[in-house]
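Risk register update: the risk of archive-format incompatibility is retired. Evidence:
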Amino acid sequence: MRRSPKETQTSVRKISRRGLIVAGLQAGFMGILAMRLRHMQVEEADTFRLLAEENRINIRLIPPRRGRIVDRQGQLIAGNEPSYRITIVREDAGDVDEVLARLARLVPLTEEDLERVRAEAARSAPFLPVTVADRVSWSDISRVAVNAPALPGINPEVGQSRVYPMGPDFAHVVGYVGPVSERDLARYTDPDPVLRIPRFQVGKVGVEARHEDDLRGRAGTRRVEVNAVGRVMRELDRQGGEPGADIQLTVDHRLQDYVCARLGTESASVVVMDVANGDLLSLVSAPSYDPNLFVRGISADDYAALRDNERRPLASKTVQDAYPPGSTFKMVTALAALEQGEITPDETVWCPGHMEVGGRRFHCWKRAGHGHMDLESGLRESCDVYFYDLALKVGIDNIAAMSRRLGLGQTFDIPMSAVADGLVPDREWKARTRGTRWRIGDSVNASIGQGYVLSTPLQLAVMTARLATGRSIEPRLVKSVNGVETPPRTGTPLGLNENHLRRIRQAMFTATNHRRGTAYSSRIVAEEMAMAGKTGTSQVRNITAAERRAGVIRNEDLPWNRRDHALFVNFAPFEAPRIAVSVVVEHGGGGSTAAAPIARDVTLQALYGGDPPLEAYPAADRSRIRAQQERLRRERETDRDGGRSRA
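Archived output:
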């Protein structure tokens, strides 16, 4: 059917209108699209370029060099050594078994090593390196490098690992490092990213742990280009990190080496302190261990041998262990009585060998008694009854106050692990911790350093230094950090009567230089080096009635771990003190026989800066001392030549 012209015109008008609408819509859409493209390509270009770069460029951390630790002479105590390892990349190796078989002909690999590598390679992505051998020698690395064409996928790598060239000598002071553990990470609210690096080493104990933030340094970075699956294609640039700070200690490695050799197999500790500035010249706990064993993770057998040793080589006895100070505490009791005006130095006390207090008999170590004792003779001959009498006059609270004034019962700020407080008991302490009142017998026991009183070897050295100087000197272990000196700790005057201090020092001098002194056999005969000291013996057990009936009351008749501890403290030279020394020999018996000879030898070694002349010793001892010096010299040379395997 034919349309009329009018109908045709109407249809054309409708189609044209629809076309215009569609064309307008299309034009609007294209305009919006063009504006969006312009926004993305021009205005947001930098944003999308950064996103693209971040998908292509990765930032990798470069472990920093750990700071060194040196002694006061600059001798290296803890450093770093190259650590070589061999890795394999599975996708580059092709036939992993064949490549490992070739490698095993060049470097020592056990069947267990090979099985471990195969298992780790199977679990890992094909482009990730797997460690085949760690801490291999330079000769092994060289052989691998020479045969590289025949070892596809094998890569020799080099890093750094901690090393302790002095071995056991500084184990308890410096400590050791080990791989980062979850426990290490838990110490930080926001851990440094470098701690996430596999096998990264951090300080575990000692100076290494306490100065971890200084020693660690700051990591460097390198920018690498990776492909879509994360495989490194090339390195774009590298920015070095900041090495850790070097730390200088106050300890003298020569003196430390001598003390370690002198203690030998004893379970003992020695502290040598400079009385002028508080510098700790030597801190030795014996027996010791080799910290190098811990760097890469100690074996279960090696750790069990250290853990189960009854002489506790892992313990830092100088600061961690607290002992009854025994008669080395008597200077505290005497000084408290003098300062309170309860006695005069010449006032005497009769010692019949015991004292009755509260219906109980307290014995003197000399069962026959000492007779009339004054301050000097009481300290010189270590009469217990004299100090029992002082305790009744002065009271425990005054004795405790003097103890704290002289440095006992305090924790000093030195970077070592598990530093103990010790214990200075008084009335308030017993009521708070034991729920009972203080008894007069408690004061009697405390007056001679028994009962509840506990002190560390470090605290005893501080006490002796304060007696020698009259100042509140404190110990210093770190001499400088990155060349910046730490302030010496000379302290301020204690405010004690100098005449009283002078009488205490004189009594200590006669204890080592008077024929009736308890340490006379360990005196120094060189007048310019003469020392003033005090012996101590602390009981670790009560003698049972059965033992008394059997006559088993001497230390040598008892098992080693039930014998008394032997102690000795001293300062020297007497006229112009330079050092203070404390010695504790666990279960050593008497202080005069076990601890005093060690203290005398260590004192002379420190004062002379090496083996002292034989003329400094009593004539009767010189042949024995000559043989001892030669033996210790040989042992120290053997330790140095043999990598310090004494542990």
